[in-house]
Protein 1
Amino acid sequence: MKQIRIVAQRESNREMINGIEFLVAVSPYFFPELLECNYDSDLGILTIEFKYLIGDDELDTSVKDDDPSVKVFVGSRTGRIQKIEVSVDTHDIDQVVLKVTSSVSGVFESLLKLDPELSQNFLAAKSAITDNGQAIAELVNN
C-alpha cells in the first residue's frame, strides 16, 4: 500500500454582514489528508482510499456512474468520498494516468449533481487524484 500525503488547497471567503466581517470556510474535516493506493494485479483493480482528519465512516456503494470500470464509495453518514476502485490495464503507464484521471473526473461531475453541498469535498478529492496521477500510475506499474 502506497501512501501519498495531500496538502489541501482550502479556500475561504470574507463576508461583511451588518458591518461585521466573517470568515467563511469549509471545515478541514471534509478535505482528505492522505491517499492510500493499492493495486491488485490479479484483478486489475486500483484502489484509492481517502483518509480524513476524523474517523472512518460506513461505506455506501450507492454512487453509480455510466462508466462500469469505476466504483465510488461514499460515507453513509458524511457523504465524503471514502474509496474509489478503477479497473486499469497496466501495459501503458500514460494510459493508466489518463484512465484514472478521466474516469474519476466523470464520476465527480455526477457526484456534484447528486449533492452540491459536498462540492468542496468532491473537488478536493478530484484535485488530489489529478495532482498525484503520475505517482498513482507508477504504483500500478511497479
Protein 2
Amino acid sequence: MIYRLIGTNVDIIDTVFVGTTYLDTNADPTVRSEEYYVLALDQCGNTSFFLDPHKTILLESQADSCQQIVSMQWNPYQSWGGGIGAQVVWLSIDGGNYEAVDTLGPEAASYDFFVTEEGAEHCFYLEAIENGTGNTSNSSLTCVIPRVVTPMENLGMKNTTFLPNGPVRVDWIWNTQAEIMDASIWRAVGDPGNFNFLSTLPFSLPLNGAESFEDLSAPQDQGPVYYEIRTTDFCGAEVRSTLGATLFLEGETSGGAANQLRWGPGNWKTARYSNTSSTASSTGCLSSKLPSILPRPVTPTK
C-alpha cells in the first residue's frame, strides 16, 4: 500500500499487487517535497509498520544578475539505510543534452553555478546516490533564463590637454557593453589625492567606445589638473578610471637673458631657454613667478 502526506494527513493513494514500483501522477514535486510511506499487506490483512518516510528532492533556483550565478537549494534525500554517498548536479542549456557539471558531498544542500551564457535557458536537476548500493533519486527539474548585468571594464583615460581657447579636453575609453546607470567626471587641482565632483556625464546605452568632455573652468596656474571618470552599474558597483593629468609649465629667471622652465606631473623636467627664441617645441602656462613671460612657444637649449 502506498501512502502520501497530503496536507496534514497521511492518506493511502493506491495499492500495488505486482511489482515494486509505482508512478504517482497526482503528485506535485515541483512545488513541494512529496513524502511517501510504503506498507506491506499480507493475506490476512495485517500491515507492516509506518517507518521513516522517504521524501522527493525539491530543487529550487534563482538567477542573480549581479553575481552572475544561478543559486540552487534543495532538501537532501533522507531515510536511505546507507545514507547519501554523493550528489551530482546535471545541466541542460537551451534543450541540449544533460551534462554533469559538479559532484557534491552528502551534506550539501545548496550550489551556485556561474553563468557563462546569458539569455539561454538553463535547466538543472540533482541526482542523489545512496552510499554502498548505488540507488539513485532525482530531484525535481528547475529552469531559469539568467540575465547578466555586464560590469564596466577597460575604463581608462586616453588624453587630457589644454585647448588653445583655455578649456581642458578630456578623452577616455570604456567598455561599450557595460550596463551603467551613472557616470561622472571628477577633478583634482595640484593634488591627485584630493578629487572633487566636477560634472555628471551624459550617455546612452549601448555606450560609445570613446568619449570626451571639455572642462571650461580648469585653472591654468595652480599646478597639474587631474581627472578621473567614475561609473556605477545597475548592481551598484562603482568603477574608477585610470588618472589623466594636464602638463603644468612654470618658469623663472635664472640670470641674464635665460629663463628656466619646469613641467610635470610625474618626474618634473627642466630646460633653459632664451627669451628671444621663437621656435616652437611645446606650449604651456607659466606660473605667476614670471608675469612678464608669456605662455608662448619656447625652444629648450642645451
Protein 3
Amino acid sequence: MKILRKIQVLTEITDKFQKGFKADINKTIEDLNVRLREIEQEIKKVGKPKTQEEHIRLNNFLHFKEQQLSSIDNLKSRVKTVMKMKDGEWLYEASLDSLIELKVGDDLYDKTRTGKIKVKDGKIIEICE
C-alpha cells in the first residue's frame, strides 16, 4: 500500500541565505505593491456604487486589497524574523508530501513519522528518513 507522509524542509541560516531571502521577499513585496496600486485604481473607477453589481464589484476589490496588505505585512514580518536569526539556526521553510510504501510487518510509526530535508545555501546537506 502506498501512502503520503510529510517531509519538512529546513534551511540553515547563513549570511548568503539571509541576503537572498531578503532580496526575494523585497521583490515579491514590490510586485504586490504594483498589484495594490492597480486595485486602488479599480476602486476609484467604481467610485460610489449605484447598482448591486457595482457594490459587489467594489466589495471584491476592497477584500482583495485587504488580502494584499495582509500578505505584505506577513512578508515584512517574516523578513524581520529571518534577519534576526543567527548563523547555524534552522528555519522551517516548507512541508512536502512523500509517497511511501507500507507492507505487512513494517513499523507504522517509524515509516510514517515526518522526514526532514536539511538545506544550506540552496543545497541539500542531509535527508532524515
